[in-house]
Structure formats: C-alpha cells, structure tokens
Amino acid sequence: MIGLLKSMATTMKHALDGQTFTVEYPEDTPEVSPRFRGVHKFSQERCIWCRQCESVCPNDTIQIVQDDQRNGEQYNLHIGQCIYCRLCEEVCPVDAILLTQNFEFTADTKDELAYNKEQLKNVPWYKDIDPLEAREPDRGAWIGEGEGEVDYQ
C-alpha cells in the first residue's frame, strides 16, 4: 500500500509541475533520435543490383526483378511488412539504400504501402539529416576507432 501511495505521489508531482511531455503534432514536429529507422530511401544511381538486400531481408520485404543483362528493372519495397531491422542498409556495399528519419507515411490500403524505385527516390529526408552521418555511431563500433591501425582485409 505504501508503494502505491509513493507512485501516485510521484505521478501527481509530475502532473502538476507544468512541464509537458507531449508534442502537438502536426503543428510541432517531434524530436527524432538520430538512430531512428524510418522509411527507406533508394538511390538507383548507386545501386549495383547485387541483390544482397533482397537476400538478407528476413521477411521478403524487398523484391528485385532484373533483366537478362542483370540490370535492375524493378525494385519493390513493401513498407507495410518491413520490420525496420536495417539489415538491408548494413549489407549494401555502396549505400544505395538507407533508412531515413521520415516517419510520415500513411496509406488507406495495404497495397498502397508497396513502393517502387521511383517512389523511393522521392522520399523526403526528415529535417534534412544526412543518414550517413546518422550512422556514424554504429560505424565507429565496427570500424574500430580504437588505437592502432585498422585492417580492412
């Protein structure tokens, strides 16, 4: 019983101090963590059509269709079934697919959440944050910013 009263006192203290914890969205844009994983951004110019993102995707969110010369004809991404694990971004050798900080995408039907490469090229960045800079904390972990030479072999 004492624990319940302590927790209620803490709740009331924070409720009455005048500080707000909510954001009046869409008038005020919320602060998004630099490591937030939002909708994908695809660069057809950088893509070498290696299909690694398609093979590493755990739930077949990415489908790539190629022609006879191994040129990519279609790059389809079903946002509705993506779990935003970022494996496709990590495995891409040329950073052709990046997860942005854009969380503002909606659809009325499930079929509208399937994006092609042209729709992914037009995905806006959220607050103009460069996703490669946002990945720097993670890259430092596996590149090894410690002392000594880094061997990439």
UniProtKB/TrEMBL annotation:
<dbReference type="InterPro" id="IPR010226">
    <property type="entry name" value="NADH_quinone_OxRdtase_chainI"/>
</dbReference>
<feature type="domain" description="4Fe-4S ferredoxin-type">
    <location>
        <begin position="73"/>
        <end position="102"/>
    </location>
</feature>
<keyword id="KW-0677">Repeat</keyword>
<dbReference type="Pfam" id="PF12838">
    <property type="entry name" value="Fer4_7"/>
</dbReference>
<dbReference type="GO" id="GO:0016020">
    <property type="term" value="C:membrane"/>
</dbReference>
<keyword id="KW-0408">Iron</keyword>
<keyword id="KW-0004">4Fe-4S</keyword>
<keyword id="KW-0479">Metal-binding</keyword>
<dbReference type="InterPro" id="IPR017896">
    <property type="entry name" value="4Fe4S_Fe-S-bd"/>
</dbReference>
<dbReference type="InterPro" id="IPR017900">
    <property type="entry name" value="4Fe4S_Fe_S_CS"/>
</dbReference>
<protein>
    <submittedName>
        <fullName>NADH-quinone oxidoreductase subunit I</fullName>
    </submittedName>
</protein>
<keyword id="KW-0411">Iron-sulfur</keyword>
<dbReference type="GO" id="GO:0051539">
    <property type="term" value="F:4 iron, 4 sulfur cluster binding"/>
</dbReference>
<dbReference type="GO" id="GO:0009060">
    <property type="term" value="P:aerobic respiration"/>
</dbReference>
<dbReference type="GO" id="GO:0046872">
    <property type="term" value="F:metal ion binding"/>
</dbReference>
<dbReference type="GO" id="GO:0003954">
    <property type="term" value="F:NADH dehydrogenase activity"/>
</dbReference>
<feature type="domain" description="4Fe-4S ferredoxin-type">
    <location>
        <begin position="38"/>
        <end position="67"/>
    </location>
</feature>
